[in-house]
Amino acid sequence: MTMEVRGWIDGDESGREMLSRLLTERPYLHIPPFQKFPLRVGNVVELVGPSPCAKTHILMQAAIDCILPKHYGGLGHLVLFIDLDCRFDILRLSQMLRNRIFQANKNQSNDEELFVECMRRFLYIRCYDTLEFLATLKTLHYQLQKERQAQGIGVNFLMIDSIGAFHWVDRASTSLHLGVDNRKGLSLQNVSVTVVQEIKKLVLVHPMLVIAAKATILGNRYAANEVKWNLKRPFSPDSAASSVTNKVHQLMYREYMPSIWQSFVTLRILIQASDDHISTENNHNKSVYLSEWLMPPLSFGDSFIVKDAGVFCVS
User: Fold this and answer.
1) Is 176 part of a structural domain of the chain?
2) How many domains is the chain partitioned into structurally?
3) Within-domain flag for 1
4) pLDDT of the chain, 315 residues: tens digit per residue
5) 86 is in which domain, residue-wise?
6) Distance separating alpha carbons of residues 96 and 86, to the nearest angstrom
7) Is 120 a domain residue?
8) Which of 96, 158, 231, 267 has an alpha carbon 20 to 30 Å from 112's alpha carbon atom?
């Protein structure tokens, strides 16, 4: 370890060599259906949308892209999935992974050994309440160190599904506690501050991409339908159209997470189902989902469907 530190201190490299090294160690990540906007380790991505709108499927797709070996088009790293909704379907993940392996093998026999190797890289933790979630975050550093030593690779993705799972329960219970015994430690603000602080500490030691799903609070049916219409129509730079879209977002998308979490998020994507369907090669009708970048506000959106092998963009 001493020799490694001394070598790092004494090392000398040009700017081009440094950029080349960083792009090799921390490459841009293209996650379907968001290939148009590359992600990087250190980003905090929030997927917001009503349930169901394929948020968890997108997380599964990203997880599979990470745990697959590089010669299968993956990253060959670990994924840490924290399930706060307690509804994660491990059978669905294994089905998607098997289909990806099957396709990569050019429809030859399934590689069971590769499947087991990939599933070892998928680290799953389920939390049933906020206190368990906080305790998990505080002990993750040691767990990830143990996994790195055991498997020889680190974690690239931290996934949380969903970050607002306990918000309303905590909001009701903490208001009662504060009125009875003044337990300030249970306030929503303090909980959110602790969550953000612990994730920041974790990312400093274990650089990774953070992806958190979050259910939205929807407005009336008119507002939701108008959002769908705006997402399906071609994007226009016209200021009047932009004003209408922003107004609809205000009606449809209500933020409820504390400000400390909102400021922690670096990228936010709105996802929802449309009324459209596409017929696949097996004559199965698949629902079309729509996504739009809220932060940063980009002038394009994506349409995608969910198939057995994962998430696929449609034109």
Assistant:
1) yes
2) 1
3) no
4) 455 556 555 566 666 555 444 445 555 677 777 777 788 888 999 999 988 889 999 999 999 999 999 988 899 999 999 999 999 999 999 999 998 898 887 655 568 899 999 999 999 999 999 999 999 999 999 999 999 999 999 999 999 999 999 988 888 875 545 444 444 456 788 899 999 999 999 999 999 999 999 998 755 443 444 444 444 444 444 443 344 344 434 445 678 899 999 999 999 999 988 888 888 776 678 889 988 888 988 877 788 888 877 888 886
5) 40-217+253-314
6) 19
7) yes
8) 158
Distances from the Cα of 43 to the Cαs of 60, 85, 103, 261, in angstroms? 18, 23, 30, 14
Would 58 be classed as within a structural domain?
Answer: yes
